[in-house]
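Quick one: co-fold with magnesium ion.
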Amino acid sequence: MNDNETPHKRPLRSARWFRKDDLPGFVHRSTLAAAGWSREDLMTRPVVGILNTWSDMNPCNLNLRALAEDVRTGILEAGGIPFEIPLMSLSENIIKPTSFPFRNLLAMEVEETLRAHPFDAVVLLGGCDKTQPALLMGAASARIPFLFLASGPATPRSATGGQLANATGVWRLVDQLRAGQTQCDFAAFESSVMGTVGHCAEMGTASSMSALCEALGVALPGSSMVPATDRRRNQLAREAGRRSVELAAVGGPRPEDILDVRAFDNAITLLCAVGGSTNCIIHLLALAGRVGVPLTLERFDEIGRKVPLIANVQPAGEHLTERLMTAGGVPALLKVLGPLLHLDARTVDGRTIGEIIDSAEVLDPEVIRPLDKPVKPGETLVVVKGNLAPDGAVMKACAADPKLFRHRGRAVVFENVQTIADRIDDPALGIDENSVLILRNAGPVGAAMPEWGMLPLPRQLLERGVRDMLRISDARMSGTAYGAAVLHVSPEAAVGGPLALVRDGDVIELDVAERRLQLCVDPEELERRRQAWQPPVRVHARGYRRLYDQHVEQAHRGCDFDFLRGADADTLPEGLF
Ligand code: FES
Ligand code: MG
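Sure, here it is.
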């Protein structure tokens, strides 16, 4: 036990269930006697939950069933009592209309599950990319010590003897296919693109989130990039189990002890350094809201100006995450980033970030570059503002064609995702490579924010070799994707944001260096359009989606529910126990 932990030693939460010789104590113990636990076990040992998002329908999380067994073994080895609880699983490519709105539902399930059960600490098992932030958000609000373990990246296979198949490769292939430029055997690609169990293996949202968990200090150092099928991940699971018992025994550190301003700054620094997913901006904003850290979009831009792209990993670079692991993993990345980090930030490991990076080493400087030899020059993630996005919008600059960083073009507006598919290849649209493709009504309220921000390019332009155009939307973009996409425009069109007022042919100006996004239309004309604007009819009359429509916040605040910001300590009335 080191200094990092000594201030805690809070009384065990589980004692309120199990350590009293009264009728409720009798009921709780006798109930779990049926699960094989003795009175002595329950009265003397800390209790650790394993929250598992495993599902047959979610191959990204499929190995979590086996990992939970290893976590369980670790908990038993350290003298704790493990209880595994299944949760809903969010399978990114399967769940309709998009997995995004269910992040908040899973976060609520996590929070209430933790609060309702006699856990002294918890190990969170997630992988596919909405499961991770949901687990973090729920656990942060429940204020119970936790440790996160990801399923790990999949191990991509070669489709046809050529390049390894992965999600970023799918996007490139789709463009080539639409341009009539590939002979690829699509069926072979389809059967191998997900390769093995585990989450997407480039620096998409899942890999970005699990890497961020190390920088936030809520995952074991070096754990995030180990592939799902690698036995080292099983060893990490046992270690997580053992460590969780230590957290349980002393009652901390709790989420709010770790997730402070320093932790978020460190996470944003890493996100920029790996050219990570823009979705993580939304998830970090939401998580910060849970722990009362006043994080804003501006902070991402401030930090982003100082952080070069040092991880040579797709989609901004060349390699997959396994190469990042063999190059030293996140601890090595953090070591390079050391001068930009808060080294005194605490972690669930018990050490500070500074202590962790002391023993880290870069093993492959081609994959993890020094600060002065980045993969590409310039900033990776930028935040732009202007009369088209008064509350901001984001862009993954490192995955876009720099020729579009200063661009002026005429808008071609798509009212919703359906109209893109119907019209994008219509020669009558009058699109050229300077046009600015606009997608609206795809924000958090408008359409539960699907990953449609990388609008497809028109076939006739792809055939002419065009591979990037400026696209602007209130949607998100897959972390595995790339292109000059200005995303998360806030406020969104469906709540009356200026994006709703754009018309075909309007001139739009983007200036990345100036961080400016401007709709070049007279203010009087915009005001006339605003007066004529009608909000879209809300379609959900009942159920969770109605709750979602009524309470989801805008992208620049993380799309959490307004009533979920903040955290509660144990709110269970003492008298009941
Ligand atoms: Fe699950 Fe990419 S589809 S992480
Ligand atoms: Mg996704």
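If it helps, The chain is about 35% helix and 10% strand.
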